[in-house]
Specification:
Blueprint (H helix, E strand, L loop, with lengths): L1 H22 L2 E17 L1 H4 L2 E4 L10 E11 L2 E12 L4 E2 L9 E8 L2 E9 L1 H6 L23 E12 L2 E8 L21 E9 L3 E11 L7 E2 L6 E2 L7 E13 L2 E13 L4 E15 L2 E11 L8 E10 L4 E11 L25 E11 L1
Antiparallel strand pairs: 1-2, 1-3, 1-20, 3-4, 4-5, 4-6, 6-7, 7-8, 8-9, 9-10, 10-11, 11-14, 12-13, 14-15, 15-16, 16-17, 17-18, 18-19, 19-20
């Protein structure tokens, strides 16, 4: 009798699971990257001495742990989510201001009509650079000239993006662009205070592509000041009428397996405290040779208001031991011209080790990356 009860119960439970599985197909994946190494940087600590360190932020790409999933709702529609944590492998701490899922935290719907997401997500500037920046968010990169670029995300935001025959368009709007720390535009305050929004338009073919983006951030009471030169004086951003705008245009072309890419990014800061414009130009090439990949990128920042005009050369060689494990050596050389504050070649640490005005700087980093 007991056997019949348990058997019938087991059949019933199995049937329920089979019925549920027939109605909704779902999948969840756990993924991550650990990337770290050892870095040497000269002309550090106000231009004197040198630094040897394990980088906090990134060797070739930032370290992360993520969860990604989708459920088929039928009629070509899926519910999708991404929860992605950023961490520093040198000490195990969380990045993005200590957020648990600071890289991405979204829930949305996806179909043939496009995708809508709500949560903390990338800006249009971040999305626009994905195909044109061959170096990516690494220790020596365009992030050394504009620290916002690898960290451009919006809290409390809703986005739509659709791709049709290679053409992608869409945008994102945030009701409160930053919630951590609480003092930095915390919450959703209304009246355009601490909001952010952007538009994206790009086209990708098999061997070439172009992209453009516009982005605007608004200030507010308690908003963090705007950095223009990493490690140098910042600009107050305390009013809802204060604007930090970026206009971006870029493209790439592939010749066999060789990729050549570049772009232009114009920044306009219009605040009660100050007005200024900068222009960032970058051009790079990526050459795969069997298990090796060689990347190079030249960037130039024109910052006449601060009289700081750095030129940054980045070279990187990588060797893939397998599909998951890669070793690399990266070098960054920056030449600072002008009498204003100097830029550092490296953005691998929260502490910016800039040289003296007009002084050059070189850094090297040997690292290892594992994907899981």
């Amino acid at each position: 009798m007991h056997y019949r009860f348990y058997a019938r119960t087991s059949i019933l439970i199995t049937g329920l699971f089979l019925t549920f599985g027939a109605q909704a197909e779902n999948s969840t994946a756990i993924y991550g990257i650990i990337d770290t190494g050892i870095e040497y940087l000269n002309h550090a600590s106000n231009g004197s001495g040198s630094v040897v360190r394990v980088p906090t932020l990134s060797g070739s790409v930032p370290s992360r742990l993520g969860f990604r999933g989708a459920e088929d709702l039928g009629n070509g529609t899926e519910v999708v989510f991404v929860l992605e944590n950023g961490f520093a492998p040198d000490q195990g701490g969380q990045l993005q201001g200590g957020r648990l899922f600071g890289r991405q935290s979204t829930l949305g719907l996806r179909g043939a009509w496009g995708q809508v997401d709500i949560g903390r997500q990338w800006t249009t500037t971040f999305r626009a650079m994905m195909d044109s920046d061959v170096i990516g968010p690494s220790a020596y990169s365009v992030a050394s000239l504009d620290s916002y670029l690898p960290n451009s995300r919006l809290d409390n935001s809703v986005s739509y993006y659709g791709t049709f025959n290679g053409l992608t368009f869409g945008g994102v709007y945030s009701l409160g662009r930053d919630g951590v720390p609480v003092a930095n535009c915390g919450g959703e305050q209304g009246n355009n205070t601490c909001t952010g929004w952007g538009l994206l338009l790009k086209y990708n073919a098999a061997q070439w592509g172009v992209a453009s983006a516009y982005e605007e951030l608004r200030g507010g009471a308690g908003a963090a000041p705007i950095p223009v030169i990493p490690g140098a004086a910042v600009i107050a951003f305390n009013n809802a009428s204060d604007k930090d705008q970026r206009y971006h245009l870029n493209g790439f072309v592939k010749i066999d397996s060789i990729k050549i890419a570049g772009g232009w990014l114009h920044r306009n800061i219009d605040t009660i405290a100050r007005e200024l414009q900068t222009n960032l130009y970058y051009l790079g090439v990526s050459v795969p040779v069997q298990s090796f990949t060689f990347d190079g990128q030249l960037s130039y920042m024109h910052n006449p208001t601060y009289d700081s005009n750095p030129t940054l050369l980045v070279l990187r060689g990588s060797y893939a031991f397998s599909k998951r494990t890669t070793a690399y050596v990266s070098m960054g050389y920056i030449h600072n011209s002008g009498s204003g504050p100097a830029y550092s070649a490296s953005c691998s640490s929260f502490v910016v080790n800039s040289p003296n005005p007009g002084q050059s700087q070189i850094g090297t980093l040997a690292g290892l990356r594992h994907v899981f």
